[in-house]
């Protein structure tokens, strides 16, 4: 292990004059003016058979941490450098919008936070962020517990006769995350853990289409009449209608029982006595937040999609990693047994589940959700110089499409020791050397009080929830939700993979998930 630690990270390929000349020519031919930025020539076949972010990683090692990816006439700038990422996401964030991503998601999320134009985004972000206040999060912990209990009871029933069962945990986590997001965001109990319903089917249908659109390179769905002619588009529109009708009803009910109040008063409500603790209730009751129903529906739809698959994925990969590491599994179970020995789960008990939280963060490092952030420049910009192969700052013309590869940043051999190893402990090791950029250990003096090692502490080498003004609004929600669910699973079960880890192939749309499910053997623990 020590030897591994001291291994030199690979050096970006040295470019010679000929390479540079060919880059310039390719830039010129593909219509860009991205200067001498290295160019990775992608074959369309690179897009099939394996997730795109794998190829982006290989090209990062070959061409350095800012390069241009050219697919015929289409090109993207791929960024794997923390300084450049910080510039795009935080320092000059408003020079960029969500580009291709917004185009894909607009038909589903309308003017919700993710695809919204800047003016709508500014207005809605100001209204939505206060909704995630401390008492709301506390109330959510009760919802996380209740929903996780439902999943655990179902799994206990399945193991009853033989003491063990083989299940697809990815599917179970997906149902659990859907139930939680429904109750937390708009007080609707999908109860997908125990039943099927047209609304649940419609949600999965819509997620499936969102994924199809994010991996299909020709937006045929924008052509006239496709929504009537192409069967999958017809189905998509009918699924969307089922969800929209459901959300419209919930909004109507919430408005009929509206109790206007100031943000401060709403944040002090006695959440323990409220029947409806959802974010929708807060948004509707907020004085001065008069908003048309269409916008509210877009907000809810956005959070349903942004908060569902991401959380299900982090739980899936946490278990995948733990199941291959029996010592870490036992360490996690020992922590859970000692912290949860006396009953109810609260925000305070959750703070003591330090190791579980680090497991979740380490799973997010290795399998970031989403693996790429997508941006498009609204004005010309000049990127700052960065590290490895990105020392010069490049000019970015207006309309440039950019992928900030979180996957590459999180597995960068330049910023992480043993980047591909699962080591939750890495986040609690004291920082070795102040002069080393990126993540080289935990520095408790930086950003004291931070709930988790975040992008600020890691100088943008670690971006589990993005960074800058478009950072995830649900980070605390998601982290506590995953902590509760994982802790409750480990309290009751020992988990083993059914086959070999290599059989669990990755596929990716908006998030990284498995090709055929995460099939595990669960054995009831004797505690
Ligand atoms: C944005 C990750 C859970 C709501 C983001 C972004 C990331 C992210 C990386 C930034 C996207 C970008 O810059 O382009 C995650 C992960 C989650 C999670 C890993 C779970 C483990 C949630 C939950 C909610 C949520 C539970 C809501 C309850 C949002 C919204 C945005 C967002 C609304 C857009 C923010 C904006 O543009 O202002 N998320 N998220 N997310 N997330 Fe999350």
What can be said about this structure in brief?
InterPro entries: Cyt_P450 (IPR001128), Cyt_P450_CS (IPR017972), Cyt_P450_E_grp-I (IPR002401), Cyt_P450_sf (IPR036396), Cytochrome_P450_Monoox (IPR050196). This protein is an alpha+beta fold and 527 residues long. 48% of the residues lie in helices and 10% in strands.
Report on the architecture of this protein.
The chain is of the alpha+beta class and 527 residues long. The chain folds into 2 domains: 2-109 and 369-428, no CATH class; 124-367 and 463-524, Orthogonal Bundle (Cytochrome p450), CATH 1.10.630.10. Helix content is 48%, strand content 10%. The strands form 4 sheets. Strands 1-2-3-9-6-4 form a 6-stranded mixed beta sheet, with helices on both faces. Helix 5 (99-109) runs antiparallel to helix 9, helix 8 (169-186) runs antiparallel to helix 14 and helix 11 (231-256) packs across helix 14. The two termini are 34 Å apart. Its cofactor is heme. Pfam families: p450. This is Cytochrome P450.
What's the CATH C level of the largest domain?
Mainly Alpha
Taking the sheet with the most strands, its summary is:
6 strands, mixed
Per CATH, what is the topology of the largest domain?
A: Cytochrome p450
Q: Which structural class is indicated by helix and strand composition?
A: alpha+beta
Estimated radius of gyration? 23 Å
What is the number of domains? 2
The coarse silhouette is globular
| Level-2 CATH architecture of the largest domain | Orthogonal Bundle
Low-confidence stretches: 1-33
The CATH superfamily of the largest domain is known as Cytochrome P450
Number of strands: 13
Q: Ions, cofactors, ligands: which are bound?
A: protoporphyrin IX containing FE
Number of helices: 19
Helix content: 40-55%
